[in-house]
Design a protein that fits this description.
Layout (H helix, E strand, L loop, with lengths): L5 E16 L5 H7 L4 E16 L3 E5 L6 H9 L6 E6 L3 E4 L12 H11 L4 H15 L14 H12 L6 E5 L7 H16 L3 E5 L3 H7 L2 E6 L2 E6 L1 H12 L1
Parallel strand pairs: 3-7, 3-8, 5-6, 6-7
Antiparallel strand pairs: 1-2, 1-4, 8-9
């Protein structure tokens, strides 16, 4: 298999976060207590190696704090590895944090233009998609209100609608689909199946193992910052439940 068959390549990748305790807040404290500042490095991910092929739908599973969401953020280049490399091959869009990229004082319509431009669309390209984005979100009656007046479910509707309409080849999703009513969750998963069948690459973090089984043909279990198991979804979930169920 050539490298061009991979949408995402993770090589010998580790991520540490520096924690600082007793950090001085004032200039006087910095001068007097500068030696007393305590630092600690937390090793969140350790020597991760992954290939995600173009067209694969992959779930990252694991308990809270295992490092799976950090791995997804590294794939988006929101944060960068301490060691190793992550390469992506193709236009990428992500749904990582509810309302990320939205300005609370802008209207929903204005935020569509703002958010879609971050994903690389021109104003003319957004003009062609804006009606479809609003229609999918089902927010026609609220689209010209400031998004600070939106509920969390409305935020998710708008964010998802923008993300799926930028024609990205790689879509990264972190648990955001757990927000919102059942009707819209079902609609989102139906759309994800459509994107999957069209050959898009999807990487999703989710605690909904039933949804993962229905959507993903591969699962990667992250345990204590390391890849514990990587394989067929059902087999990985069965082993995961034996330990963490």
């Amino acid at each position: 298999m050539s490298k061009n068959d991979n949408a995402i390549e993770v090589r010998n990748m580790s991520k540490d976060f520096k924690l600082i305790y007793d950090k001085p807040n004032t200039l006087k404290e910095r001068l007097v207590f500068w030696k007393n500042t305590k630092k600690e490095y937390r090793h969140v991910l350790k020597n991760i190696n992954l290939n995600i092929k173009k067209g694969e739908t992959v779930a990252l599973i694991g308990t809270n704090g295992s490092g799976k969401s950090t791995l997804l953020k590294l794939m988006t280049k929101i944060i960068y590895p301490t060691k190793g490399t992550i390469k992506t091959n193709g236009k990428l869009t992500s749904l990582l944090e509810l309302g990320a990229g939205f300005h609370p004082d802008f209207t929903g319509r204005e935020n569509i233009y703002f958010n879609a431009s971050i994903f690389g669309l021109t104003a003319a390209e957004i003009d062609k998609r804006v009606v479809d984005i609003i229609k999918f979100s089902e927010l026609e009656d609220f689209i010209d209100a400031p998004v600070r007046t939106y509920s969390s479910g409305m935020y998710m509707r708008l964010a998802f609608s923008v993300a799926i309409n930028v024609d990205a080849e790689i879509l990264l999703i972190d648990e955001i689909l757990a927000v919102g009513d059942q009707h819209f969750q079902d609609k989102c998963f139906e759309k994800l199946h459509e994107l999957k069948n069209s050959g898009r690459t999807i990487v999703i973090v989710s605690h909904s193992l039933d949804s993962v089984k229905k959507l993903c043909n591969r699962a990667v279990w992250i345990y204590d910052g390391e890849v514990k198991l990587d394989g067929k979804t059902g087999e990985v979930i069965d082993e995961y439940l034996k330990v963490c169920g």
